[in-house]
Amino acid sequence: MAARRGPTYLRVALGKELRTLRDQLGLTAEAVSLELGFSRSKVSRVESGDIPLPKLNDLERLLDRYGVDDIDARDALLQMQRGSLSKEPFTSYTSLLPSGMPIYLGLERDATRIRGNENHVVHGLLQDESYATALAHSAKVVEERTTSFVEQGVRLRMERKQLLTQSDGPEVHIILTESALRTVIGSPEVMRAQYAEIKRLCALEKVEVQIIPEDLPTYRSGWNFTVLEFTGLGPVTQSDSAKATTMWSKESDVGQFQRQFVAMAMAAPGPSQTPQILDDLEKRLWK
Fold first, then answer.
1. Helix/strand/coil for 121
2. Residue 175 in contact with residue 212, Cβ under 8 Å?
3. What integer best gives the mean pLDDT of the chain?
4. For the chain, which terminal residue's Cβ has fewer other Cβ atoms within 10 angstroms, N or C?
């Protein structure tokens, strides 16, 4: 599958390249900022992919400082910079997203492989619309959300799911705990619809779902997390809360989550058994 490279991917990739160039010269981000007259945090935030570098002249100055003289190398980085300035399709939802989530959504669209673990609720990419709506409404009063806010959030979640049916979409592998599927969200009718949606998605070529039974004596991660893998860019791991999304890109950090995922995937019943597990749960819980 050819690598997709959306604006967020290009912004993160450009930042990574710029940091590598700076590190090779033994320079600190603060030193470069002071030397070139940037704000103290600008270099660091550009390198982490938090913000774009909108001015072509700023990139040219950075490349000059880092001694990048090769025409082809400069052109490749300049093309990254231009591509990173395009708008993502979810831009209209930015006001309702927690801190860190916009950059995650941009990377999610360009991932070639997505591996997620959820302990408490169904993973967002697997949620049925009725389940997502009931889940959002259950928190509406507590989190002081408007009906419009809830509806937009559900719409965004459904738009994200389109990744699963795109011909160039990522391979998706999700692990759920049985307890997440036993927790009633909305009503038995909603839960039946959610089970049916998981079974429908399991039938897709690039989607695998595993369920860890409650009575299986095995390792379970204490964290909900998602690992995104790419072509031409190192993997990142995301874990979120109501207020913020935390992302890790350091190899040792991502590696820890990858090991957790592999341990659970090896111990849980295989993806082919998921429909039967759901059927058994539905008969016991929601009939």
1. coil
2. yes
3. 88
4. C
Per-residue pLDDT of 5-37, as tens digits, reads 788 888 888 888 899 999 999 999 999 999 999
Phi-psi region of 227 (alpha: psi -120 to 50; beta: other; left: phi over 0): beta
Q: 239 with 225: CB under 8 angstroms?
A: yes
Task: Domain 7-85: give its CATH architecture.
Answer: Orthogonal Bundle (1.10)
- pLDDT(170) > 60: yes
Whether residue 124 contacts residue 160, with contact meaning beta carbons closer than 8 Å, is answered with yes
Average pLDDT over residues 75-96: 75
Residue 114 burial (10 A CB sphere; 0-12, 13-18, 19+): buried
Q: Where are the domains of the chain?
A: 7-85, 99-126+156-286
Three-state SS for the chain is CCCCCCHHHHHHHHHHHHHHHHHHCCCCHHHHHHHHCCCCCHHHHHHHCCCCCCCHHHHHHHHHHCCCCCHHHHHHHHHHHHHHCCCCCCHHHHHHCCECHHHHHHHHHHCCEEEEEECCCCCHHHCCHHHHHHHHHHCCCCCCCCHHHHHHHHHHHHHHHHHHHCCCCCEEEEEEEHHHHHCCCCCHHHHHHHHHHHHHHHCCCCEEEEEECCCCCCCCCCCCEEEEECCCCCCEEEEECCCEEEEECCHHHHHHHHHHHHHHHHHCCCHHHHHHHHHHHHHHHCC
**What are 241's two structure tokens?**
């809360």
- Pull the structure tokens for residue 33: 């900022």
